[in-house]
Amino acid sequence: MARAWVFGDNISTDDIIAGRYLVQHDPRELAKHVMEAVDPEFASKVRAGDVIVAGRNFGCGSSREHAPMALKGAGVAAVVATSFARIFFRNAINQGLPVLVSKEAKEGFRTGDGIRVDVSRGEVINTSTGKVYRAEPLPDFLMEILRAGGLLPYLKEMRGKEVRKGQSVI
Predict the structure, then answer these.
(1) Could you give the CA distance from residue 157 to residue 161 in angstroms, rounded to a whole number?
(2) Which residues of the chain have pLDDT under 70?
(3) What is the rounded CA–CA span in Å between residue 95 and residue 50?
(4) Is residue 155 part of a domain?
């Protein structure tokens, strides 16, 4: 069962993965240090499929693709927050990490609660309490990028379709 990890407001990209680790590009290596600035035990306790539930402005600070890479490398299945820093939101989608905005979910979870996220329906379910929270649905084009596993796999997929149709690809 997936578990919720609850964090507060203004979790920066430096909180997610400190600058000293940015020489790494392997998500598994980055995962060893993910969230250590706010929860030193997170990296050793998070399990594949777990979900972060956070407050306002998640991913603020520097633009770095390493932050969603580290979360994804640690097995985090999605991040649900009251709001996101715009660049983190898009970097997460580009890395294939689902991110959902829910104005109410953070107040309904405690770390360790069971959680299920239905990205396509925009639902966040606390399986410990049975309560369902609404999230803003993602536009179809962002869902396509997520389904492909991120922006690069999506672009490769689109290029392959164009080549098979005989269209000119630049």
Answers:
(1) 6
(2) 162-170
(3) 17
(4) no
